Amino acid sequence: MSTTLTNIMTATNLPNGNYIPVDLNLINNPIYESLSIEAMMLHALYTMRMSCSIYNSQKDGSWLNEDGHPYIYFSNEEAASLLRVSERKVTNLKRSLAELGLIQVMRHGLKNYRIYVANPQAPSEGTTIPLVFKNFMTTRTIKTVDNPVTEKPKLSPVDRVAESASTSAQNLLTSTQKQLAKNITNTTNVTRVTTNSAAPSQDSVLIEALAARYTHLLPQQVFQRLLPFCDNSYEKSRWFIDTIFKAKYSSNQQLIEAGLPAESEVLTFEDNSYFSAGISDAVAKALEQMYRYKNVKNPEAFFFTFMRGFFTEKTRQYLVDHYEMTRELEQTLSRLQQNIMKQKEKQKQYKTQKVVKKAS
Question: Is the pTM of this model over 0.70?
Answer without folding.
Answer: no
